[in-house]
Amino acid sequence: MNPVCRVVLAATLTALVGAPGASAQTTARQTAQGPATSDPQNVDRQKPAEQKPAEQKPAEQKPVEPQRYEETVVVSASKTEEKLVNAPATLTVIGGRAIANATSQNFADMLRAVPGVNITQVSARDINVTSRGATGTLATGQLALLDGRSLYQDFFGFVMWDFLPVNLNEVKQIEVIRGPASAVWGANALYGVVNVITKSPREMQGTTATLGVGTFGRANGESRSGSLWYISGTHARAINDRWSYKLSAGGYSQEPLSRPKGIIPGSPGAGTAYPAYTNTGTSQPKFDARVDYDASDGGRLSLSGGASGTEGIMHSGIGPFDINSGSYMSYAKVNYGKKGLRAAFFTNVLDGDARNLLTRTPTNDPITFAFKTHTYDFDISNVNTVASRHVINYGGNLRFNGFDLSLAPKADNRTEFGVYAQDEMFLNKYLRWIVGARVDRFDYLNDFVFSPRTTLMIKPHESHTFRLSYNRAYRAPSVINNWLDVTIAEPINLGAFSPLLAGKIYPLPVKSVGNPDLTEQSLDAYELGYTGIINTRTVVSAAFFVNKSNNDILFTEVKEAKWTATNPPPNWAFGLLPPAVINFVPNASFPGLFTYKNFGKTTQKGIELGIDSAVTGFLDLFANYSYQAKPEPDGFDISELNLPPKNRFNTGFGFSYNQFLGNLSVSYTDSAFWQDVLDARYSGTTKSFTLVNGSFGVKFGGGKVTTTVKGTNLANQKVQQHVFGDVMKRQVIGELRFQF
Question: What is the per-residue pLDDT for 295?
Fold first, then answer.
């Protein structure tokens, strides 16, 4: 906490948490789709009197419902504002009511309801998200943004979701691009993008405070239930028609979940037992601040900054790391926007350390990981209309990363630069053609990286769009991919060779190194999609996709470096056993070296169907189905891949009527296979599971006080989302929220 507090005090000068898209609506879009969407500058300038509790009555909420679908504005697909139905990519929006009624504080349970998105929660703090493909313990292909600021950790190539510095009541909507998006967002938007968009200070005026206390069940005969709690507070005020500000803080704490025991299901041979280690929970403090200045000429300057701390388990290919208390990420951001022009600068600073709970060095010392990174990013974009038939969107960014990593001592810094342009052509009343591309240059890759995009949109009606699209995206090698350098000891029980050696353990040295010659992993995506708005209150979506990835970056054993009878490991216990026993399993000598390699090609196909409906002014319904076929590798064995669940299904409803509110949802996930574990012996399969989540709340005092009971896994099913992950049972939370 102390380092976090110090950083928080230093970080309160900084940057935009406003939407990253341009606010201008072009003449071409007005001509083709009717009146432009509402200007967020005007929305933000609503007076506090316009947000009185009386406006929350159901009768006055009804006119807002069509805006949620037909008039829903998104910014993530093209880095500029456009209606959801006109976005050139398949995109899901999680709106304010779903966020307010969320049954837990982590993003996994909200994103789980999105079709095509695979989620794993493997510990109290560790969440991984991947669109249209198998996820894992380190999901490396999904870009995550907070109002356009990258949360992607370049050193390991993944997202730490607990480093979001804002509370849920500050989030306006979550936009999920289900497909590649490097054509505008650049590196690491390989499978998709999650963009968390927050409210401006003017949109959340007042003071809120939330307190939640909960309990969750244990597995494997553990008698004592686990506990969790969270607290948050937000204060926002518009000082006048020019200046406004927001301050927020919060904290989350949860005891450890249960670890699985016994034999790993589906593990090869006679089966491998789960290794024992002391599991840990998590604590996550956070603080955020923002100041906006709305100029008379329509421009806006925003300064924001904050910090988030974390501790708890982070799983990896070399075993679980326990992130120590005091690890944090702070940020600062400056943003200026006027009509179609947007310019931004942000910096992310990460400082933490962790200790591996299983792997040790050959001298029996625990593997430790100290990581310090700093990122500086400059971004500029603009939107122009040309000849009333072209909407030109263009921009670029410059990014600098510095690293100090104990597991990659040769890593130092990286510089990246990219530019993009996109032309939305209005061919006639029924046809639009979008053509765009981005070119990036990395100082650690030999060639420029080219990411094209094209989408033909057929619009038989303003509220219906059929899309035929092609996109190319890529993931750059992470610092660990390039420069990992660690030797771990694989404990070998010599008692397996002779009863005379029972209990004697030999620390077999296994080297894990990076590969500086890696090239980027790329993906070519083909999609046939549909988005339609029916009677202004129902959105229907469908998509069929084919993703073809190239040069997959995978962690694998170097077969040529196996320890053999003729190539025994250092310090082999010759006095105890001859080297020949290393080959006690034919054709399966002990591993000697692991590294990252570019593999051949993989094809992933799938179908996504969804419907969201605002049935009345107080009742919402949703249902969706996802099918993902078995991946088809070309040039390497399928054992190198995680296999995603084949079928996923979600359905549910949410309501808010007078003083009552709540929701109920059911989520089914098929079985899946996981190989991103310590080594092949620990790979295995998770069973299919069904989660039933729900909440019910009552408002008092004119809507100023809300009490809610929230539950996840209400059926108390034993759920394991990753073969090496924790076991989850029923969780129940009591929440008290004040709004002034």
Answer: 95
DSSP code, position 429 = S
**What are 441's two structure tokens?**
């240059």
Check if the beta carbon of residue 340 is closer than 8 Å to that of residue 383: yes
Weakest mean pLDDT among 178-187, 271-280, 416-425, 458-467: 271-280
Tokens of 366: 């625990």
The residue type of 229 is: W
Token pair recorded at residue 376: 């500086």
Does residue 494 belong to any structural domain of this protein? no
Mean pLDDT of 28-37: 43
Beta-carbon count within 10 A of 109 CB: 22
Residue 22 DSSP symbol: B
Which residue type does 125 have?
A: R
Cα–Cα dist 427/324, whole Å: 57
The C-alpha atoms of residue 403 and residue 49 are separated, in whole angstroms, by 49
pLDDT above 90 coverage of the chain, percent: 67
Is the pLDDT assigned to residue 16 strictly greater than 50? Answer: no
For 406-448, list the strands marked E by DSSP: 413-426, 431-442
Is residue 579 in a domain?
A: no
- Range scoring the smallest mean pLDDT among 62-76, 285-299, 590-604, 689-703: 62-76
Instruction: Name the token pair of 145.
Output: 């943004």
Mean pLDDT of 95-106: 87
Is the pLDDT confidence value at 68 over 90? no
CB proximity list for 701: less than 8 A, separation 6 or greater:
none
Range 710-722 average pLDDT:
95
Tell me 273's DSSP state.
Answer: B
Q: What is the mean pLDDT of residues 455-478?
A: 96
Q: Could you tell me if 349 and 333 are in contact, meaning their C-beta atoms sit under 8 angstroms apart?
A: no
pLDDT-based confidence at 223, cuts 50/70/90?
A: confident
Domain of residue 82, CATH code: 2.40.170.20
CA–CA separation, 281 and 296 (whole Å): 49
Number of separate domains in the chain? 1
DSSP secondary structure letters along 210-261: EEEEEEE---TT--SPEEEEEEEEEEEEE-SSSEEEEEEEEEEEE---BPP-
| CA-to-CA dists, residue 486 to 254, 403, 410, 513, angstroms | 31, 17, 12, 6
Phi-psi region of 537 (alpha: psi -120 to 50; beta: other; left: phi over 0): alpha
H or E stretch covering 383: strand 366-386
Distance CA 518, CA 555 (A): 12
| pLDDT in the model for residue 555 | 87
Looking at the chain, the number of H-run helices and the number of E-run strands are 9, 42
The parent domain of residue 166 ranges over 2-477+519-552+599-739
- 566 within some domain: no
Read off the DSSP letter of residue 275: P
Q: What is the pLDDT of residues 114-144, one digit of tens each?
A: 999 999 999 999 999 999 999 998 888 999 9
Is pLDDT at 40 greater than 90 in this prediction?
Answer: no
- pLDDT for 740 equals 86
Distance between terminal CA atoms of the chain? 29
Domain membership flag for residue 144: yes
